[in-house]
């Protein structure tokens, strides 16, 4: 994919072979998040993939959604996962084979989809646009490959909706600002509708889910990563960081912790 996603840990150039297992594990953890599952269920229902249709999954990762699309379009349809990371493609292919799924996986770039014009009935694209420097081009590609009447589901995180409680508001703001630097476009979730309409597609439905962390335990790897980053950037002091860590620890012991980010979805179609 060249330099279209240079800031993303999902980019093939930014992950070593030994890191594929860790990335797959992170994607697996997202798969079982209640909020992710609810938003996906809504999006699949709105897309309504049917037997005999052709579907693609852009940025297919471990292939969980490609396999679901393959089941929906079976037995005469086709579901193709497009993924630039060779390690994830291998994982996806192996899992599909083990599940007896007809889902296929190919190398591909969201900005230059390896699919002919007007040849796809259903497009799934989840948490990809936030990693792109030119997301509008990716949506234009989706519009190009859709047949008249074809449908697309875009799902993406909006990192500016990150909420962390309790803690001093100034300290929390410094900490959560690190989440905004984790993506090429941290505001992608709120832009989905505008990007689809700008590409000439018609909005059919919109949805959202707050992705909640466990209220009884602190997600320490993520919190520490954000905390150390905030200290290095002089957004907070070490004393502020340590006080926040203590507040979060106490809240988790009381079952009163709140940490969340919101993911949005939009379903649209290409006019006949």
UniProtKB/TrEMBL annotation:
A GO molecular-function annotation: S-adenosylmethionine-dependent methyltransferase activity
Domain of life: Bacteria
InterPro entries: Methyltransf_11, Methyltransf_Superfamily, SAM-dependent_MTases_sf
Stretches of the chain forming a coiled coil according to its record: none
Methyltransferase type domain boundaries: 56-153
One Pfam family per UniProt: Methyltransf_11
Protein name as annotated: Methyltransferase type 11 domain-containing protein
Organism: Streptomyces albiflavescens
């Amino acid at each position: 994919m060249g330099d279209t996603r240079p800031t993303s840990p999902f980019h093939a150039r930014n992950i070593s072979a030994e890191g594929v297992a860790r990335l797959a594990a992170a994607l697996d953890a997202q798969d079982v998040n209640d909020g992710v599952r609810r938003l996906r269920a809504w999006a699949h229902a709105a897309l309504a993939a049917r037997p005999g249709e052709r579907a693609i999954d852009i940025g297919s990762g471990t292939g969980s959604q490609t396999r679901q699309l393959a089941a929906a379009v079976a037995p005469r349809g086709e579901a193709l996962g497009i993924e630039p990371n060779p390690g994830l493609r291998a994982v996806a292919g192996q899992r599909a084979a083990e599940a007896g799924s007809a889902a296929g996986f190919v190398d591909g770039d969201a900005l230059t989809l390896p699919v002919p014009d007007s040849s796809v009935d259903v497009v799934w694209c989840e948490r990809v646009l936030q990693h792109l420097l030119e997301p509008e081009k990716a949506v234009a590609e989706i519009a190009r490959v859709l047949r008249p009447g074809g449908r697309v589901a875009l799902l993406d995180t909006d990192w500016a909706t990150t909420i962390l409680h309790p803690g001093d508001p100034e300290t929390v703001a410094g900490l959560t600002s690190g989440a905004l630097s984790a993506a090429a476009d941290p505001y992608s979730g709120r832009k989905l509708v505008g990007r689809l309409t700008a590409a000439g597609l018609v909005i059919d439905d919109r949805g959202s889910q707050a992705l909640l962390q466990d209220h009884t335990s602190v997600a320490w790897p993520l919190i520490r990563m954000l905390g150390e980053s905030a200290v290095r950037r002089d957004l907070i002091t070490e004393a502020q960081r340590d006080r926040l860590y203590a507040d979060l620890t106490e809240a988790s012991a009381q079952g009163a912790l709140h940490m969340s980010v919101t993911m949005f979805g939009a379903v649209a179609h290409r006019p006949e």
